[in-house]
Structure to design on (378 residues):
């Protein structure tokens, strides 16, 4: 008998299991390690201050970014190991005329937020000259305008997940490789999960199965409108450059470039809504990613291709995460639907759900992210 079972071993589930164990709960983590899991392919960009999405998502993003140092401190205490986390900065660039209107809209939106909330401050996020932008990221095309977010960071999703699982094991989390086939409910209360013929019992259950979450939540009578969105991401090798010091680069065609130490530069990503559970690399996807990367940073033309990773992001119908209790089932919780922002929003979302499991009030109003909002919208 456990206090809590977490279904799903990606970054959200692994964080939830680890934090539950830190909270003193006997914890079981069920993970079938699905091919195409978003955690294993994510770029790991943490740049919430330049988000222009809804107020609720902006607030969640800020808190998520601020939570990382706390989480990393916990992992250091528990010997989790390297996560690849680093403050690297982020450049938002307009390199062609068609992007100038979008750039201006971003500057205006950030100015409005600054006037209303006092952040992001001008010191944190400010415009830089084209020459300064290229000095920060040498392969960059000469931009027409550029904005520098000094607070942005990056994290390696695979390393973070390994660190979480290692630290969780040190906290006596039981990890079981297998499928969560059925959430068991008795008298309106979650009492465990069945995996084949085996039954694992617990007082609470957290469903954090990424794009696969609706499979488990559906029989509970709640519609979790989350579906896989394929993202193809290409890893390049740039010899002889101190790439670890380069910032993230965003232009305005929904793509990005993230650099790591050792000459590794990551270009992404496609956003293939309607892809289904199909984690293939496609010719069209590679063409799209490379074409956009070289449009923005033609200095990468001589880079070698290392690999292409594919992640099936859990994208919700309204673009907001699904975080909180499952109505009508006491002790059942969900955390999914983070789309392309899973490595930014996922760990803090897991922390919010963990607070609920521990009987505490979460630090953020979860109403915009409630699990039953999709059925209510019909």
């Amino acid at each position: 008998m456990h206090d809590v079972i977490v279904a799903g071993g990606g970054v959200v589930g692994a964080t939830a299991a680890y934090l539950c164990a830190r909270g003193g709960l006997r914890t079981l983590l069920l993970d079938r390690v699905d091919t195409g899991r978003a955690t294993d392919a994510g770029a790991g960009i943490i740049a919430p201050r330049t988000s222009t999405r809804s107020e609720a998502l902006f607030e969640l993003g800020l808190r998520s970014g601020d939570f990382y140092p706390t989480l990393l401190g916990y992992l250091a205490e528990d010997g989790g190991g390297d996560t690849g986390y680093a403050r690297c900065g982020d450049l938002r660039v307009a390199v062609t005329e068609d992007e100038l209107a979008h750039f201006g809209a971003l500057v205006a939106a950030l100015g409005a937020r600054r006037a209303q909330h006092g952040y992001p401050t001008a010191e944190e996020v400010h415009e830089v000259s084209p020459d300064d932008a290229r000095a920060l990221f040498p392969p960059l095309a000469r931009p027409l305008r550029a904005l520098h977010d000094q607070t942005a960071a990056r994290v390696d999703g695979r390393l973070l997940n390994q660190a979480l699982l290692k630290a969780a094991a040190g906290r006596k989390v039981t990890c079981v490789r297998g499928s969560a086939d059925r959430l068991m409910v008795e008298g309106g209360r979650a009492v465990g999960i069945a995996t084949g013929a085996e039954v694992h019992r617990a007082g609470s259950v957290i469903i954090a199965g990424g794009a696969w979450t609706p499979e488990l939540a559906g029989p509970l009578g709640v519609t979790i409108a989350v579906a896989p969105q394929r993202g193809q991401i290409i890893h390049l090798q740039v010899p002889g450059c101190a790439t670890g010091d380069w910032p993230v680069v965003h232009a305005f065609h929904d793509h990005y470039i993230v650099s790591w130490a050792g000459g590794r530069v990551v270009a992404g990503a496609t956003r293939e809504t309607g892809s289904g559970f199909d984690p293939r690399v496609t010719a069209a996807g590679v063409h799209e990613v490379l074409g956009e990367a070289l449009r923005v940073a033609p200095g990468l033309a001589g880079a070698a291709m290392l690999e292409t990773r594919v992640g099936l992001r859990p994208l919700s119908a309204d673009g907001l995460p699904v975080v909180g209790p499952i109505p009508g089932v006491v002790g059942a919780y969900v955390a999914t639907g983070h789309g392309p922002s899973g490595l930014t929003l996922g760990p803090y979302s897991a922390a919010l759900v963990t607070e609920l499991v521990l009987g505490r009030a979460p630090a953020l109003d979860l109403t915009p992210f409630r699990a039953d909002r999709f059925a209510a919208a019909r």
Observations:
- The first helix runs from residue 11 to 22.
- The chain has a mean pLDDT of 95.
